[in-house]
Amino acid sequence: MPTAQAQLMNGTDLARTLIDDTARRAAALTRDQHVVPTLATVLVGDDPASVTYVRMKQKRCERAGLRSEHVALPASTSTAQLVDALGVLSADPGIHGILLQHPVGDHIDERAAFDAIAPEKDVDGVTSQSFAAMALGGNGFASCTPGGIIRLLDHYAVDPAGMHAVVVGRSPILGRPVGMLLLGRNATVTYCHSHTRNLGSIVSAADLLVAAVGKPNFIVGEDIKPGAVVIDAGYNAGNIGDVEFSSARTRASLITPVPGGVGPMTIATLLAQTIDAAEPQTTAGE
């Protein structure tokens, strides 16, 4: 008798739908207000992976009818210089969203850099104000990967209310904010990290698991509760996630593949939030 397989949560198709809607909104803004929504990307240094990510985001902008403006800064850029550059972009009425590609280098105070972005242009959801909004339910943008995860859950009719959600990872742009968003949806949230003891037993109690630790195949299927929803937000060399997919799929009810799950939703959410930022900025300028 064949083993049951979890349903795949297809982020690629959902992202395409979201980008199509974003393109429609961008066209309407350009037609009605004569404004082209613009995303500024800022890159410090020339790390090959970061260069590739930025170039990919620029291409997606073009396909969706958004303009992208790129600011390339040398690896020697100081915190003060980066903060100044972000301040200039924040004050520019022609820029509607700002993305600071991270990491920015160990010599830079990343938090100071993030918080130099005007909150109304923080379409990547990285400022302290945006995190406060995710935690407290105020106005602000969600971090793009957590925001994409919530969109995926909604699309597949997964209501976190009452679920025990376990988040493995506590980064300020993924683990921590996704836990806050799930808490806002009335889930009971447990955070796990490198100092967590008996991780397997905690994971096995999760109705909803978000793996965001950045270690390939870190979570194995035998630790997953039968019927759990598994969100693999990891992406490691060789297109490998943080969850051992083959074994997890025989235990979960829903699971995101890597690639094709969370990743496409991250960029789609970034573009959608750029339009979300552009619309009120354009109205305010009338």
Automatic annotation (TrEMBL):
NADP(+) binds at G169, R170, S171. Pathway: One-carbon metabolism; tetrahydrofolate interconversion. It comes from the Bacteria. Homodimer. Residues 9-124 form the Tetrahydrofolate dehydrogenase/cyclohydrolase catalytic domain. InterPro entries: Aminoacid_DH-like_N_sf, NAD(P)-bd_dom_sf, THF_DH/CycHdrlase, THF_DH/CycHdrlase_cat_dom, THF_DH/CycHdrlase_CS, THF_DH/CycHdrlase_NAD-bd_dom. It comes from Antrihabitans stalagmiti. This is Bifunctional protein FolD. Keywords: Amino-acid biosynthesis, Histidine biosynthesis, Hydrolase, Methionine biosynthesis, Multifunctional enzyme, NADP, One-carbon metabolism, Oxidoreductase, Purine biosynthesis. PANTHER family: C-1-TETRAHYDROFOLATE SYNTHASE, CYTOPLASMIC, C-1-TETRAHYDROFOLATE SYNTHASE, CYTOPLASMIC-RELATED.
